[in-house]
Each structure stands twice: as structure tokens, then as C-alpha cells.
């Protein structure tokens, strides 16, 4: 079978991770086109990745008869519009999370995705494709933990990125810390429990970077969730981790518990010297989830070739976004928010 021809929009930090994987690490596809408003990023795509077509207008790229599929790694506010346009042009679509920032727009997008059953749509919840999370999922499915009663999630970015984030927050809308960061944890909670979130309450504080108060962003946020079966979850999201990139998940059930990456180790090396015993930590998301990004892109291409649907759907994007927005509302109102079933 011929290779799937792919175009990508967005060549920022995460966009380059995806672009390099599509060009070098994912079997059965060819990265043919790239779209960005930044000329230096297009130059990089041509010189480093061998891209043949470059665009500054996304609408022009999705019309290209060369392309079979589109990877969307643009700012979150563009996702819905770009998904809809690509689907209408007959392309298979992979979109990074979140699927969008507005529930009405997401519901419209979900409906449009549903009109094209022969096209593959996949959302970028890459933690589902990480080996450690997959192993934990197998244990849960096998009943090793019994009934899950509590899930605790940490997602904390390295403090080394705070200065750049403060500048970004002043010029752009990330959707807020729960949408930008906790949405991965929200998806994991739904994935592990197979239950929807019913109620949320959230708090937060800007300690090291009070400048974030002025732009409506949080340095550290926490949310407490109640699931539809009375199960519980705690989310901690932060942007100021001194030791590196800390993503940790704890599952507690009636028969046992497990922790995924309780220590965010870089590798299996222990250094023993005058400082004691030192284990290096992962420093960013491309390092921690390197293989997961490859695995999810490979799954997208495989779904196209095998004419099947991926596990992660537009509905997952809608439900996770509902919870993230409810967390934001709970923080801003200091009230318990009930998520209505629709």
C-alpha cells in the first residue's frame, strides 16, 4: 500500500515533535506539507524534514490533492475550525488536544466528524499510548485493583519554562491551566474508570509568579472531582516544578493501589557521589512521552490504512473539555459546579 501523505499545521515546540516523528519515526506515512505563518518554521520543514509543499494559508493546504491526512498542532482556539475544514475536504484528521475551547463549537465539530464515517479522526491524548499507562490500564481491566475509588494526578511543568509562559500568557489564551494541562489527567480518569465526572470544585494560587494574576492564569491549580458512581479524583496542575517535568498518577482501589511515575526518572541510572544518591529527572514532555507520541501517530496512520476507528474520539474531547471548563468555572466562582448530562 502507498504511504499516507500527511500535512501538518503548527511547527512550534510540540508541532516539531510531531513533524519529526512523521518524517522519521512513523511507518507507512510521508510528511509532504507544512503550514505556518512563521517563515523560519517553513524553512526548517523544508531543510530539515524534506517537506515538499509549504503554506502560510491553512485553507490552501487542506485543498491540496496530494494530501490524505492533516495533523493539527496549532493554538487551541483554531482546532475546531481547522478540523471541520479538513474533514469537509475529505482528509483524515489528527488534532492535538484540546479539541476546542467552546462547547457549542466542539459539539458542532463532533457532528461534522460524524458525517464522514469513512474518514479517520483522532485526538492527541498521548498518555493512553505510553507503555506505563497501558500496563496500568491492563491491571485495572484485569481487576487487580478491584473497584477504583480514588485517582490522584499531578501534571507540573518545569520552572525553567515559567518566564516564557508568562510572556505567552500576556499575548495568548491557553484556555487556562485546567484546559491546557489537566485535560490529559481528565482524559485518563475517564479512560481508567469508564465513568463521567459529575461535580468539580477548584482552587489555585500564584506564589512565585503573581504577574499571572493580571492575565487570568494560574501557576498552580487543584481540583476535586466526583464521578457519576461516587468515585473521586484529585487534580494538581502547576507550572513551577524545580526538579523537572513531573507527571504522576496514583490509582487506589478496593483491592490495591498503584503509582505511575511517582519519581519522574529520566532513566535507570543512579549517580552516587558526595551529594548522595541522585536519580536524574525528565525535564520536559518531549523527553518523558517520546515513545507515546510516536505510538499515537503510528496508531493514526494504521487506522487509516486498516480502515478502522481509533479509541480516542471527538466525544472524548468534548467530555474532557466539559470537565476542564467546569474546573475553571469552579475556581473563578469559588463554587461547586455540577456538570449536566446532555
Automatic annotation (TrEMBL):
<feature type="domain" description="Gfo/Idh/MocA-like oxidoreductase N-terminal">
    <location>
        <begin position="4"/>
        <end position="120"/>
    </location>
</feature>
<protein>
    <submittedName>
        <fullName>Inositol 2-dehydrogenase</fullName>
    </submittedName>
</protein>
<dbReference type="GO" id="GO:0000166">
    <property type="term" value="F:nucleotide binding"/>
</dbReference>
<dbReference type="GO" id="GO:0006740">
    <property type="term" value="P:NADPH regeneration"/>
</dbReference>
<dbReference type="Pfam" id="PF22725">
    <property type="entry name" value="GFO_IDH_MocA_C3"/>
</dbReference>
<keyword id="KW-0560">Oxidoreductase</keyword>
<feature type="domain" description="GFO/IDH/MocA-like oxidoreductase">
    <location>
        <begin position="133"/>
        <end position="259"/>
    </location>
</feature>
<dbReference type="GO" id="GO:0005737">
    <property type="term" value="C:cytoplasm"/>
</dbReference>
<comment type="similarity">
    <text>Belongs to the Gfo/Idh/MocA family.</text>
</comment>
<dbReference type="InterPro" id="IPR036291">
    <property type="entry name" value="NAD(P)-bd_dom_sf"/>
</dbReference>
<dbReference type="InterPro" id="IPR000683">
    <property type="entry name" value="Gfo/Idh/MocA-like_OxRdtase_N"/>
</dbReference>
<dbReference type="GO" id="GO:0016491">
    <property type="term" value="F:oxidoreductase activity"/>
</dbReference>
<dbReference type="Pfam" id="PF01408">
    <property type="entry name" value="GFO_IDH_MocA"/>
</dbReference>
<dbReference type="InterPro" id="IPR030827">
    <property type="entry name" value="Myo_inos_IolG"/>
</dbReference>
<dbReference type="InterPro" id="IPR055170">
    <property type="entry name" value="GFO_IDH_MocA-like_dom"/>
</dbReference>
Amino acid at each position: 500500500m502507498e504511504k499516507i501523505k500527511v500535512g501538518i499545521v503548527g511547527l512550534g515546540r510540540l508541532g516539531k515533535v510531531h513533524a519529526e516523528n512523521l518524517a522519521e519515526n512513523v511507518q507507512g506515512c510521508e510528511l509532504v506539507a507544512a503550514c505556518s505563518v512563521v517563515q523560519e518554521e517553513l524553512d526548517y520543514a523544508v531543510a530539515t524534514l524534506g517537506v515538499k509543499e509549504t503554506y502560510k494559508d491553512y485553507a490552501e493546504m487542506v485543498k491540496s490533492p496530494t494530501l490524505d491526512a492533516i495533523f493539527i498542532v496549532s493554538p487551541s482556539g483554531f482546532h475546531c475550525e481547522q478540523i471541520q475544514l479538513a474533514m469537509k475536504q475529505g482528509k483524515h484528521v489528527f488534532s492535538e488536544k484540546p479539541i476546542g475551547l467552546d462547547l457549542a463549537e466542539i459539539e458542532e465539530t463532533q457532528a461534522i466528524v460524524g458525517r464522514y464515517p469513512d474518514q479517520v479522526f483522532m485526538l492527541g491524548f498521548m498518555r493512553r499510548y505510553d507503555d506505563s499507562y497501558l500496563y496500568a490500564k491492563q491491571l485495572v481491566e484485569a481487576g487487580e485493583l478491584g473497584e477504583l475509588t480514588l485517582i490522584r494526578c499531578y501534571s507540573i511543568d518545569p520552572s525553567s519554562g515559567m518566564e516564557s509562559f508568562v510572556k505567552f500568557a500576556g499575548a495568548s489564551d491557553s484556555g487556562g491551566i485546567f484546559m491546557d494541562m489537566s485535560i490529559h489527567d481528565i482524559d485518563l480518569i475517564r479512560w481508567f474508570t469508564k465513568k463521567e465526572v459529575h461535580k468539580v470544585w477548584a482552587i489555585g494560587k500564584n506564589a512565585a509568579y503573581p504577574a499571572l494574576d493580571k492575565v487570568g492564569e494560574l501557576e498552580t491549580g487543584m481540583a476535586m472531582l466526583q464521578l457519576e458512581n461516587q468515585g473521586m479524583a484529585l487534580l494538581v496542575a502547576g507550572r513551577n516544578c524545580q526538579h523537572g517535568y513531573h507527571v504522576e498518577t496514583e490509582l487506589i482501589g478496593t483491592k490495591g493501589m498503584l503509582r505511575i511515575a511517582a519519581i519522574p526518572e529520566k532513566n535507570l541510572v543512579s549517580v552516587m557521589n558526595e551529594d548522595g544518591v541522585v536519580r536524574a529527572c525528565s525535564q520536559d514532555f518531549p523527553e518523558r512521552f517520546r515513545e507515546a507520541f510516536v505510538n499515537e501517530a503510528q496508531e493514526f496512520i494504521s487506522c487509516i490504512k486498516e480502515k478502522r476507528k481509533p479509541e480516542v474520539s471527538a466525544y472524548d474531547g468534548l467530555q474532557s473539555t466539559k470537565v476542564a471548563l467546569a474546573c475553571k468555572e469552579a475556581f473563578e466562582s469559588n463554587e461547586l459546579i455540577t456538570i449536566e448530562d446532555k
